[in-house]
Amino acid sequence: MTGLVDRYVAWLAVEQGRSARTVEAYRRDAERYVEFLVARGSTPVSALPRDVDDHVGWLRNNGLSVASVARGLAVVRSLHRFMVAEGERPDDPAADRDGVRVPAGLPRPLDQDDVLRLLEAAAGEGPIGLRDRALVEFLYATGARISEACGASLGDVDLSSGTVRLLGKGARERIVPFGVHARDALVSWLGGHGRAALAPGTGAARTDRDALFLGGRGRRLSRQVAWDVVRRAARRAGITRDISPHVLRHSCATHMLVNGADLRVVQEMLGHASVATTQRYTGLDGSQLFEMYAEAHPRARR
């Protein structure tokens, strides 16, 4: 069964173009499904529809979130489709299984005053302080995913035009602008007292030498450290709710929409494949909606 999972994840990476992070997550879910079947004397080759249903029930009973259960079932369905396509078995026991519905839920952006406090709190002394301020400014200015920010390289940033090339999901590239505050923070970080103080030597791996953001040991900044940067800044700013880098992405999108940006422009900036995903960011409160209506609709006022 190990060989089956290996072939499956290779197919995901090569044929489907899934990211390395997605492939690894799918591998874990596929291996968990195989282990579940083996424990009850079955395999993916002999699994029945009730085995698929029981696996979903087992995931739910083991405390996984609704989103994790939904992904687990999606992987099982994908694995069995792959097996049928590869001639591993003639039928698909997961074909008629309904997907797990995940409640949509609206993102909770920060208000603009909280963002300003967060940005001020991100500043600190020395190269780490300059990096932290630049990172938080960059995330809010561009709406970048944390993986995109950590994956950005020096050659991706054009300070003269105020743009950055981001590599998003499905290896899709996009050019995103950033404003003067983010530019100033990046200039300070990229100067002699910032990145240069942490830059790795010539013998380091190229991915570290080229990284836009570096960790304290001169390696490319990890997602975990970037999360910690944002959370520490939130604590210093006195923001008590749980804050993640993705909240800055939500805040960037929401604030642009509140201030009149076109939905399609925000879609392009965030790298959403579908405008339906971007529409989730229109979950504004009643007063904001009323104000926008009053400003924009020709029949809203006398």
Task: Give keywords.
302 residues, mainly alpha, DNA polymerase, domain 1, hpI Integrase, Chain A, 2 domains, 3-stranded antiparallel beta sheet, 3 strands, 4% strand, globular
Number of strands: 3
Question: How far apart lie the N and C ends?
Answer: 71 Å
Strand content: under 5%
- Fraction of residues in H or I helices: 55-70%
Cα Rg: 23 Å
The CATH topology of the largest domain: hpI Integrase, Chain A
Overall mean pLDDT stands at 87
What is the CATH architecture term of the largest domain?
Orthogonal Bundle
Q: CATH homologous superfamily name of the largest domain?
A: Intergrase catalytic core
Which segments are poorly predicted (pLDDT under 50) over 5 or more consecutive residues? none
SS-derived structural category: mainly alpha
For the sheet with most strands, the description reads: 3 strands, antiparallel
Task: Compute the number of helices.
Answer: 15
The CATH class name of the largest domain reads: Mainly Alpha
Give the neighbour order of strands across the main sheet: 1-2-3
Write down the overall geometry.
globular
Summed up, the domain count is 2
Give the H and E element order.
HHHHHHHEEEHHHHHHHH
Report on the structure:
The protein has 302 residues and is mostly helical. It folds into two domains: 2-85, DNA polymerase, domain 1 (Orthogonal Bundle), CATH 1.10.150; 112-242, hpI Integrase, Chain A (Orthogonal Bundle), CATH 1.10.443. 57% of the residues lie in helices and 4% in strands. The chain is built from 15 helices and three strands. It has helices spanning 2-14, 20-39, 49-61, 66-85, 112-122, 126-142, 146-151, 180-190, 195-198, 206-209, 223-236, 245-258, 263-270, 275-279, 286-296, and strands at 157-158, 163-167, 173-177. A three-stranded antiparallel sheet has the order 1-2-3. The longest helix has 20 residues, at 20-39. It starts with a helix and ends in a 6-residue tail after the last helix.
